[in-house]
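Lab meeting, item 3. Inverse folding demo.
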């Protein structure tokens, strides 16, 4: 029996991994099992004893994040616990094709409430009270009203909701999915890549069967201007995205009073009640109340700079990478409600269980896409309506670029939410006649 391992990126481009370690048990002539640790070669058949029925592969790469994959023969079929790895069998040759990615869970840190904080913690803050959670993120059950379709006026003289035919719904996001912070870009901890950009993402991970073509919503918030966010410059590795304060502090602040601007931003839009002077928009609540539960991707722009994600090529790559990560961790599934769930238990982000759930699922290559912009964020949405140049000198195409055709093929809706007014100040939404499709519900 022979195993052939191939590696590629999400675009299908072949990769050269630095090492492949195979661990398996071989049955000896006396019936006992001998544990074997074998270093496989890439792209060539590796001989394995025919008694082997399961194996763990560990793939390492300098640029991309590695994968640990369990393979097992079940009823004559070889399955894996990683949908980013596909298995093909031809005679005694078993081929494993693994797609590697460049997204990880964002680093986290838990601090005692009274611990002094003056500097950048270099991680997102995590708290524990009733549950482990990101700072300022605690989704709770709330009642929402949705108008009927088509809109029907039932009493034009009534006050408030009494004017329209509507329905009430109690929305509990914690029962429908998980809010997750991710990092996208160059691999952390590699010295020669220490100055290359990584970007923070907030992702809503639905806990439903997504079907063969998942729904994806990319949400663009207003730009992170210097009046409210720490200023950073390319490659965005100083104050973005984990700085604890808008400007450096002369005196330390106790941890419980720290609300880092970048990492708490997406919660206010997606799932939170808001904090202090900041409003909460509860976009995920509204989606659930309307009977929709897509994968929501919210890139957090660095000092008003969206990097590669302001282009069709960059956004297409981002979506591919997010889907690869979520499916590989089995946090989402096409055919069933996922068994694995996101957890911050102990203050560390992970999928639980982390491995061992065999499946023949694969990562979807197409999706149904909605791109939404709130207020000044609509500028970025309109940028995406044309094939703008990709800045390959700043953003390595190997990690940030993808052919844009899947994005264009799957794009179905454009939402302009509270678009910038036509006030003569030059917003693109004004200059382009407020291009919008307010299909919010």
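The presenter then showed the designed sequence:
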């Amino acid at each position: 029996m022979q195993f052939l391992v191939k590696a590629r990126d999400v675009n299908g481009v072949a990769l050269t991994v630095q090492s492949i370690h195979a661990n398996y048990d071989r049955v000896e002539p006396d019936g006992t099992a001998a544990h074997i640790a074998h270093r496989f070669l890439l792209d060539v058949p590796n001989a394995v004893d025919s008694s082997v029925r399961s194996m763990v592969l560990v793939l390492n790469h300098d640029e991309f994040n590695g994968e640990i994959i369990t393979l097992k023969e079940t009823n004559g079929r070889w399955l894996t616990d990683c949908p980013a790895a596909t298995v093909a069998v031809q005679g005694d040759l078993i081929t494993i094709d693994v797609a590697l990615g460049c997204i990880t869970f964002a680093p986290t840190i838990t601090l005692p409430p009274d611990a002094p904080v003056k500097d950048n913690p270099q991680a997102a803050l995590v708290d524990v009270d009733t549950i482990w959670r990101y700072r300022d993120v605690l989704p709770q059950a709330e009642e929402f009203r949705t108008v009927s379709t088509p809109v029907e006026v039932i009493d034009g003289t009534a006050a408030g909701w009494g004017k329209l035919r509507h329905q009430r719904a109690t929305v509990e996001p914690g029962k429908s999915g998980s809010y997750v912070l991710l990092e996208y870009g160059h691999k952390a901890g590699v010295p020669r890549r220490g100055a290359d950009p990584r970007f923070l993402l907030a992702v809503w991970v639905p806990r439903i069967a997504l079907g063969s073509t998942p729904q994806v919503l990319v949400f663009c918030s207003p730009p992170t201007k210097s009046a409210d966010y720490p200023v950073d410059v390319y490659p965005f590795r100083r104050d973005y995205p984990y700085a604890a304060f808008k400007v450096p502090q002369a005196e330390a602040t106790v941890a419980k009073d720290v609300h880092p601007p970048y990492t708490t931003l997406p919660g206010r839009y997606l799932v939170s009640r808001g904090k202090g002077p900041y409003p909460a928009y509860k976009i995920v609540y509204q989606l659930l109340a309307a009977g929709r539960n897509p994968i929501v991707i919210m890139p957090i722009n660095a000092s008003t700079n969206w990097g590669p994600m302001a282009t069709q090529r960059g956004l297409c790559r981002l979506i591919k990478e997010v889907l690869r990560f979520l499916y590989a961790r089995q946090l989402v599934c096409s055919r069933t409600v996922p068994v694995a769930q996101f957890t911050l238990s102990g203050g560390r982000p992970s999928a639980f269980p982390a491995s061992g759930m065999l499946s023949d699922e694969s990562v979807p290559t197409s999706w149904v896409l909605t791109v939404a912009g709130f207020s000044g964020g609509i500028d970025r949405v309109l940028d995406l309506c044309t094939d703008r140049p990709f800045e390959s000198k700043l953003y390595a195409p190997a990690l940030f670029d993808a052919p844009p055709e899947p994005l264009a093929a799957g794009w179905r809706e454009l939402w302009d939410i509270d678009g910038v007014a036509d006030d003569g100040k030059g917003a693109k939404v004004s200059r382009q006649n407020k291009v919008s499709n307010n299909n919010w519900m």
